[in-house]
Design goal:
Chain lengths: ~650, ~280
């Protein structure tokens, strides 16, 4: 009987497969049609004759006609081709609405990006959690993944609202610029728009089909839906990224902005893939941090040990995702910055050594906050297991390294000083602290911070296990040796290449340092995976964690949000007074780089706005699970 | 009815919101504590060419070098520079050396041509150690300054050459722009312009900072940096001598010091700025 039922249910899926196939086919056709139009707009016109359209191939033969020799020059070639160059608007061409246009676009773009990042990231790790649940057969994973989706569902609407508002603001306030961008990207916009239909389809079927496709083969269907949802989401992201990177490092256009390449050449500028990777990783960290705050809030709101255990575990998993994604982020950042320098040294220096350089001090404060909060949460989490006493003595040393490195990282290089201050300091740089202000010192600091954060993580993971393999002491000794050699190597590379060679080698040494950090992380994961394969597991008490630890889970998303706002601002500002760098000048009243204070205030505004919208999102997610009790009828004496 | 297992939602919300907003404000505070500078887009400025003297042209060149040309982003003293420290050596003498170098691939025959060539075709000669990574010093990372985003006009590049020639006392060989050339340049680059003159300082301290006096002179001690310490200069020199040592520093040199002080302050300082600095130094006894 159960078999029959099962078979019936599988067969009942066929119509669904058919419908799904139809939808996919239509979506695929839309994309292909969009790309074909894009191709057409890049050089081949629909009004061309058949011969003109196929002539580049070589000899032409049209069925039913004689062979014709290919003309070397046609009449069309002789005609002057109209070249559309980038517009050069003057100040009066920018509409004035009485409020800074840049501020309006800044807020809308940032809000759209925050929510966009969140709703792209959540389905990504939800899918991974769902798979984990399927493999481990632990239903907690499945329930948690479902809950994550529920939380982020409202986020899709909010993303769309801010996206629409942003488009409206851009077309209204920067008409010439948007006209030019439309011309350059042509029908790619249609592909972009059509992807929203796809994403919505997969989103709703994925979310609402969760319980319907929960077990057996249907689960695979559900996971496929999740995969398609992520595919659509990621494609949307990389398309949108191509606009931002085109503005920074235009490709596929000539010096005056006339399109000379096809849409693919326009999209694949030098910064496109570094930005794609950076945003992809950062989104996951950001998404993890936001749902971590949700779990923390639910944990703090409840006294029920079962609920507290659930939300403690959920908070831990979210934090795990956030920190895991955060650790490789600086390396993606290095790649992006290296590509920026390779594209334009001037642009790189504007960011790192010019007017925007001070923002990296704020960045240091933010990343320091993230690392301190992440570590603090891991140390607090050790109280869940009795086995953690073995490692607690190390915490104070990790804390010391973190604090010292943090202080080195926030040491500024040059400070704007009055004459008397210069005199008091004995020059524009402090003779002891001055050398700590330059990048080699900061590279040492950040790599050491990452290494000790990984150490905290490793200790936490080990705290509920006892290795049973015979080579455990040897493995531990090897691991200690790797940590020591890595730290020495990072300090040596930073000091030697940073202070005793010229700039080119300084940059090169950072690659060596990053490589060393990665070796520690990979070696740590591999050794622990082997060493604790059949380890004795000590009991963990979920929910047994101090309330104060949960504030670390609020610090993370706040710092992440602020950091995204800050670095997005830096990324956009390196263009200085250009809409499209070197191609289209920004001549609007806002074409200057504002003060750090102004930028900081703007970032705070968007962070607080985001916080409020996220609260709304959480509230709505909870509302759907709340049912009002039926009122007691007055006739039964309920009213007095 | 309240669930006994639920804490007061508003209490937790208040605490967590308070914490989150507090942290946000800390970040805002940090951003507001740092130096507040605006990065202005290059301003269009009118240069009155009919009254332009060679001194004005040189000052304009220096301003272009430091501002619109963005040269000092990379051409800085070691270890900060990403390109040779042009302001730290005699460019004319160095140009002559490079023209004779077998690695030189360009077509210039004199220093002025070489400097111009290095601005528009930086790869014609790449100083050893400063080439693009992996290019074995055959390709320069420097952008052509006559192209976007810098877009200096021919006249502006001439002004920079004049500045670079004059800063070490060499003869200026470029000529002042003719009105026709200037008109052509102005028509070609409407948003460009010839760099704006720095704003006059309002206090003596500001003037010291503007002309970077403290880079070479210690104001509060007798310690010799590049030039002598000035803590007691008022007792050593009269007001007239102080004025002369700024306007014409190489007439009387302090014992044991080279003639390293720029001789062009007279052309750069306003009368008021010079007076403020002289008054400040005269009081240092």
């Amino acid at each position: 009987m159960p078999l029959q039922k099962n078979r019936k249910s599988i067969f009942s899926l066929f119509p669904l497969f058919k419908q799904l196939g139809m939808v996919l086919l239509v979506a695929l056709l839309m994309s292909v049609a969009g790309l074909s139009v894009a191709q057409a707009s890049s050089g081949v016109s629909a009004t061309d004759t058949l011969e003109q359209r196929i002539s580049p191939i070589g000899r032409i033969h049209i069925e039913g006609e004689e062979f014709t020799e290919k003309e070397t020059s046609s009449a069309a070639d002789a005609e002057e081709v109209e070249v559309v160059v980038a517009p050069t608007p003057t100040r009066k061409d920018y509409p004035n609405v009485g409020v800074s246009s840049r501020a309006i676009v800044w807020i809308l773009a940032q809000m759209h990006l925050f929510f966009g990042a969140l709703v792209l990231a959540v389905p990504l790790f939800v899918l991974v959690i769902e798979l984990t649940g399927m493999i481990t057969k632990d239903e907690r994973y499945d329930d948690m993944a479902h809950e994550f989706m529920k939380i982020s569902l409202v986020g899709f609407s909010i993303t769309a609202i801010f996206g629409g508002s942003l488009a409206l603001a851009l077309f209204m306030l920067y008409p010439d610029f948007m006209g030019y961008m439309m011309h350059v990207f042509g029908a790619q916009w249609l592909v972009y728009a059509s992807l929203f239909f796809l994403e919505s389809f997969f989103l709703y079927t994925y979310y609402y089909g969760w319980d319907a496709f929960r077990y057996g083969n249907k689960k695979w269907l559900h996971i496929t839906l999740g995969l398609m949802l992520n595919g659509a989401g990621m494609t949307i992201m990389v398309l949108a990224n191509s606009w931002a990177t085109f503005m920074m490092a235009p490709s596929g256009v000539n010096e005056v902005g006339a399109v000379v390449g096809n849409i693919w050449e326009v999209m694949k500028g030098p910064l496109w893939n570094p930005i794609n990777l950076h945003r992809f990783i950062a989104n996951i960290g950001f998404g993890g941090a936001v749902v971590g705050a949700y779990a923390a809030f639910k944990f703090l709101s409840s006294r029920d040990p079962v609920k507290r255990a659930h939300y403690d575990w959920m908070g831990y998993t979210s934090n795990f995702i956030a920190i895991l994604a955060f650790l490789p982020l600086p390396f993606a950042g290095y790649w992006l910055m290296a590509e920026i320098y390779a594209y334009s040294q001037q642009m790189g220096i504007t960011a790192m050594g010019g007017i925007l350089a001070w923002l990296f001090i704020v960045q240091a404060v933010l990343i320091g906050t993230i690392l301190l909060a992440g570590n603090f949460y891991l140390w607090s989490g050790m109280s869940r297991t009795e086995g953690s006493v073995r490692y607690k003595w190390l915490i104070k040393y990790i804390a010391l390294v973190l604090v010292v490195c943090f202080l080195i990282w926030v040491t500024p290089h040059t400070i704007m000083l009055s004459a008397s201050e210069i005199a008091a300091l004995g020059g524009s740089h402090h003779h002891i602290l001055g050398p700590l202000g330059i990048m080699p010192a900061k590279n040492i600091a950040v790599n050491l911070m990452l290494i000790v954060t990984f150490l905290s993580f490793q200790l936490y993971r080990r705290s509920d296990k006892v290795a049973t393999v015979s080579w455990a002491p040897m493995g531990n000794a090897l691991l200690v040796a790797i940590y020591i050699v890595a730290m020495v190597n990072i300090i040596f590379a930073g000091v030697y290449y940073g202070y005793f060679t010229n700039t080119v080698y300084k940059v090169g040494s950072s690659v060596m340092q990053v490589g060393t950090t990665l070796v520690v992380i990979i070696a740590g994961i591999v050794i622990d995976a082997l060493m604790f394969k059949k380890a004795k597991v000590l009991p963990s008490h979920w929910g047994k964690i101090p309330d104060r630890s949960q504030y670390a889970l609020f610090a993370l998303p706040i710092a992440f949000t602020w950091l995204m706002g800050l670095m997005g601002y830096v990324r956009s500002s390196v263009k200085t007074h250009w809409h499209v760098y070197t191609v289209m000048k920004d001549t609007s009243p806002d074409n200057y780089i504002p003060t750090i204070g102004y930028a900081g205030n703007m970032i705070t505004i968007v962070t607080v706005l985001f916080l409020l919208c996220v609260l709304f999102m959480f509230w709505v997610a909870n509302l759907s699970a709340t049912k009002q009790p039926k009122p007691v009828a007055a006739a039964e004496g309920g009213a007095s | 009815m309240t669930d006994v297992n639920e804490k007061s939602g508003m209490g937790v919300l208040g605490k967590t919101m308070g914490f989150s907003l507090g942290l946000t404000l800390v970040f805002t505070l940090v951003a507001n504590l740092l130096p507040q500078v605006e990065g202005e887009a290059p301003q269009e400025s009118k240069v009155d060419l009919s009254s332009l003297t060679m001194d004005d042209f040189i000052v304009m060149g220096e301003d272009l070098f430091n501002n619109k040309g963005t040269c000092t982003l990379c051409h800085k003293p070691a270890p900060l520079g990403r390109a040779p420290d042009i302001q730290g050596f005699d460019v004319v003498a160095k140009s002559t050396e490079r023209l004779a170098d077998e690695r030189y691939k360009g077509a210039s025959t004199d220093a002025a041509d070489y400097i111009l060539e290095s601005m528009v075709d930086p790869s014609a000669y790449v100083v050893t150690g400063w080439g693009k990574k992996g290019s074995n010093d055959s390709e320069s990372p420097m952008p052509a300054v006559n192209k976007a985003p810098i877009q200096l006009s021919a006249m502006e590049m001439d002004a920079i050459i004049a500045y670079l020639q004059s800063k070490d006392g060499n003869e200026v060989t470029v000529s002042l722009p003719s009105p026709e050339v200037a008109a052509e340049v102005a028509a070609a680059a409407p948003a460009g312009g010839g760099g704006s003159a720095p704003a006059p300082a309002t206090t003596a301290e500001e003037a010291l900072g503007k002309f970077t006096c403290t880079a070479c002179h210690s104001m509060d001690s007798k310690d010799a940096l590049v030039g002598p310490g000035l803590v007691d200069v008022g007792s050593r020199l009269s007001i007239e001598e102080i004025r002369q040592s700024i306007v014409d520093p190489n007439v009387v040199l302090a014992e044991g010091f080279p003639a390293a002080m720029p001789a062009d302050f007279a052309g750069k300082m306003t009368v008021k700025e010079l007076q403020m600095i002289v008054d400040l130094l005269a009081e240092k006894k």
